[in-house]
């Protein structure tokens, strides 16, 4: 026994010695030269901006939201979550949730943790807080109750099962964060500079962005709590929102290099539907929807010519007379599929097209609503006209081929005077919002659920999951039910079943 123990002991000691010898330089060899253990706030902030905007731009933007608001249609069933209210395979209802947390949410949280205790980086902290609100408002608007207060704490506290916060509490905190961040911005201190993809670190413009976000969120509450909506809307208006072209928030992309440099909506839609570029072999069977094209056509809207084409002899044709949308709810490829309109790859789907994050068109239209509600002073008709004109002018951002002349804008405005009754005014404002926010389909979907305008006729295809009603939210991922079960169950108990028809808090 003693001899056996001695042999085993020597073998063990030899192994330890050998491992010790092998360990020399081992840590150095295992350091990735392309990464840093230290957070560089400016670099991480750029990535947080990229990733918050580049999230499921096909499955969520086109298939789910764009189909639901009848901007897009498809004859196929797999991508038909918004078109036919089907979901039989894939991850379309989950994608935005699954991608948001490990990327944009964690990244902006890391920036905040890196700068929050350094007074010299007060602007970096404030802008990061604003961007965190932007990142989260899209998640909660798509799903309702979601992890918020404990989100990202897997890295900091090893908490891999975060609780779900109520959407009400999330909205209250986002509004508070926007107010505190806006008032703490100081133009005399340093900012992100060129690392800021939207404003190049311009603190004055970020303050307007913060109040504009506050305005967007406050108006989201008109159905659920009009008094709270009014309070925050008036704070936002007093603070100063984006009303002029010069303050429009956008990211300018480039067509070359890595995919992260390219407009994510353009890249996703081209890759998932319009890559072949012949009008017939669209991968997911997608086209512009009949509702969308018919609205633009009936109103003689010059934006149709900027964004829409029909492929004729392998060439994009923008002739207005031939533009037509494909009906939602089709179950087979139409024989005349090639004759339906789709997005112009040389304008709105250019890889170097800018991505409009928050526009003066939206803010002017919301101002028109605030005025008719009695929450703001000014002339609602003027704000309404300014919103439409701003949207039309913004077409020039997609190149000369998309630009709309002042004469055409004035002609359109002259033919679309502001109505006199509240409901008619609301319908005008938000039908214009439905057009003006394109291709930001996540925001189009949220605004439509809040206002109900334009009035859309749902499809009712056999086998759909909503009894023929347009979906009101997306679905929590299966992984949440399996890996974060107690918190998932608490959210469902509070909000309602994890279905496409369960309405979120502000959509009651």
What do these coordinates show?
This protein has 508 residues and is mostly helical. Among the domains are: 41-249 and 464-507, Serine Threonine Protein Phosphatase 5, Tetratricopeptide repeat (Alpha Horseshoe); 259-343, no CATH class. It is 50% helix and 5% strand. It has a 3-stranded antiparallel β-sheet with strand order 7-6-8. The protein has a two-stranded antiparallel sheet with strand order 1-5. Strands 2-3 form a two-stranded antiparallel sheet. The longest helix is centred in the N-terminal third of the chain and has 22 residues, at 2-23. It is globular and about 60 Å long.
Shape: globular
Mean pLDDT across the residues is 93
Content of β-strand = 5-15%
Report strand order across the widest sheet.
7-6-8
N- to C-terminal distance: 78 Å
Quick summary:
The chain is mostly helical.
Structural key phrases:
Serine Threonine Protein Phosphatase 5, Tetratricopeptide repeat; 20 helices; 508 residues; 5% strand
Q: What's the helix and strand layout?
A:
Blueprint: H1 2-23, H2 26-29, H3 41-53, H4 57-68, E1 72-74, H5 95-115, H6 122-143, E2 146-147, H7 153-157, E3 164-165, H8 167-184, H9 203-219, H10 226-239, E4 249-251, H11 264-274, E5 286-288, H12 290-298, H13 303-307, E6 308-312, E7 315-317, E8 342-343, E9 355-358, H14 360-372, H15 380-394, H16 406-414, H17 422-436, H18 441-451, H19 478-483, H20 485-495
Antiparallel strand pairs: 1-5, 2-3, 4-9, 6-7, 6-8
């Amino acid at each position: 026994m003693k001899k056996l123990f001695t042999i085993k002991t020597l073998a063990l000691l030899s192994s330890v010695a050998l491992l010790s010898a092998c360990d020399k330089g081992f840590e150095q060899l295992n350091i990735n030269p392309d990464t840093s253990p230290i957070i560089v706030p400016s670099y991480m902030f750029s990535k947080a901006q990229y990733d918050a905007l580049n999230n499921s731009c096909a499955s969520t933007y086109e298939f789910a939201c764009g189909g639901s608001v009848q901007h897009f249609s498809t004859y196929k069933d797999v991508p038909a979550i918004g078109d036919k209210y089907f979901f039989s395979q894939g991850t379309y209802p989950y994608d935005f949730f699954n991608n948001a947390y490990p990327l944009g949410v964690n990244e902006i949280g890391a920036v905040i943790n890196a700068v929050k205790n350094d007074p010299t980086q007060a602007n970096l902290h404030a802008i990061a807080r604003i961007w965190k609100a932007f990142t989260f408002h899209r998640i909660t608007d798509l799903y309702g109750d979601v992890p918020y207060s404990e989100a990202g704490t897997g890295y900091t506290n090893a908490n891999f099962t975060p609780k779900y916060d109520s959407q009400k509490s999330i909205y209250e905190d986002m509004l508070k964060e926007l107010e505190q961040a806006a008032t703490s911005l100081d133009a005399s201190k340093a900012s992100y500079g060129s690392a800021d993809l939207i404003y190049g670190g311009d603190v004055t413009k970020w303050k307007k962005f913060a109040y504009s976000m506050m305005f967007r969120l406050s108006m989201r509450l008109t159905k659920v709590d009009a008094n709270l909506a009014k309070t925050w809307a008036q704070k936002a208006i007093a603070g100063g929102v984006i009303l002029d072209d010069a303050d429009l928030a956008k990211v300018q992309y480039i067509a070359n290099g890595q995919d992260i440099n390219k407009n994510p909506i353009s890249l996703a839609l081209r890759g998932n539907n319009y890559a072949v570029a012949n009008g017939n072999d669209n991968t997911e069977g997608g086209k512009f929807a009949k509702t969308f094209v018919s609205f633009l056509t009936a109103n003689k809207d010059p934006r149709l010519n900027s964004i829409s084409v029909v492929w004729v002899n392998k060439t994009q044709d923008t002739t207005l007379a031939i533009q037509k949308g494909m009906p939602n709810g089709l179950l087979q490829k139409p024989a005349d599929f090639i004759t339906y309109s789709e997005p112009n790859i040389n304008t709105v789907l250019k890889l170097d097209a800018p991505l409009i994050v928050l526009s003066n068109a939206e803010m002017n239209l919301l101002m028109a609503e605030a005025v008719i509600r009695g929450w703001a002073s000014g002339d609602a008709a003027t704000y309404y006209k300014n919103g439409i004109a701003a949207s039309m002018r913004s077409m020039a951002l997609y190149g000369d081929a998309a630009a709309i002349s002042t004469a055409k804008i004035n002609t359109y405005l002259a033919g679309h005077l502001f109505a006199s009754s509240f409901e008619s005014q609301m319908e005008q404002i938000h039908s214009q919002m439905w057009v003006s926010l394109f291709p930001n389909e996540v925001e189009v979907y949220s605004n439509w659920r809040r206002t109900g305008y334009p009035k859309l006729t749902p499809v009712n295809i056999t086998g759909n999951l909503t009894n023929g009603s347009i979906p009101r939210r997306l679905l929590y991922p299966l992984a949440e039910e399996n890996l974060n079960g107690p918190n998932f169950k608490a959210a469902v108990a509070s909000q309602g079943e994890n279905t496409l028809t369960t309405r979120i808090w502000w959509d009651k």
